[in-house]
Amino acid sequence: MSQPSLVIGNINWFKYASPQTFFPLAGAMIPWFGWAAAALAAAGLYVGFFVAPTDHQQGEAYRIIFIHVPAAWMSMFIYLVMAFWAGVGLAFNTRLSHMMAQALAPTGALMTFLALWTGALWGKPTWGTWWVWDARLTSELILLFLYLGFMALQAAIDEPRRADRAGALLALVGSVNVPIIYFSVQWWNTLHQGASVSLTAAPRMAATMLAGMLLMAFAFWFYSIAASLHRVRTIILERERGADWVKEYARGLR
Amino acid sequence: MSWGSLGEFLAMGGYALYVWGSYAVAAGLIVVEIAMLVARRRRALEGLGAGRAGAGSAP
Prior knowledge:
The structure holds two protein chains of two kinds. Chain A is mainly α. Chain A contains eight helices and two strands, in the order ββαααααααα. Chain A has a two-stranded antiparallel sheet. In chain A, strand 1 and strand 2 form a beta hairpin. In chain A, helix 2 packs antiparallel against helix 3 and helix 4 runs antiparallel to helix 5. Chain A is globular and about 60 Å long. Chain A starts with 6 loop residues before the first strand and ends with a helix. The model of chain A has no long low-confidence stretch (mean pLDDT 92). Chain B is an all-alpha fold. In chain B, 64% of the residues lie in helices and 0% in strands. At the A-B interface, helix 1, helix 2, helix 3, helix 7 and helix 8 of A face helix 2 of B.
């Protein structure tokens, strides 16, 4: 099969779109991202539990923030990255892009579930309820269903190329939900509070609280990269099992 | 540091259920995801005849 070429700055970028080229590269990156995630999480938990002060309104309950906000950020960000790769796959018909989208979905669903779960556990002591059908919570729940729908659709279609295209379409259409989640607290009158951190205004929290939250956000980010790279390698092994290099790789592990 | 003792730390100012319920489920799900990743890779390699290290089964 001849590969398409996209040469920018003397580098043929489609070279990295080949599963065979990407497989060892991804394998080499996993330990770096994995250990970085572990180190950042250790630092973030230390700052979150031993440096950041007690909140004068919420007491210790606010410490849920160190998981809740990073998980919620990642749930939206992973979806956008997944939709991006799905779109690239549709546009250039590159197998690896679709595999990447597929590899991101379970980790995205995990982050979405964690955002909802920790949100419920935070809502009970602060709002007096586990759940309320306001715009922020409802659109985040829809995000979970989009991830699960994407995974179910992929699993339901036997022919991989058709499953790729159907899943990619769902991923792209569903991406309109992400700005709805993000701006829901501005567009509607929600029980959920507005953004505590933005690029345009000073953060509305103590510096050490913010530091703990950002450390945990980077930890979740790097973890998601490591997990997705690990999963995409397995998907490559599953889908390219007929290729000689895959058989040779498996033989090398025997 | 805001904790006088381990008991105080674990009590989380009366919010232990909510705080530790969040952290325990987050840690548990990450452990489950890693276990699922490892299991799926092993299945794929077994399908390719690689098997577990040192126990390569012939097709």
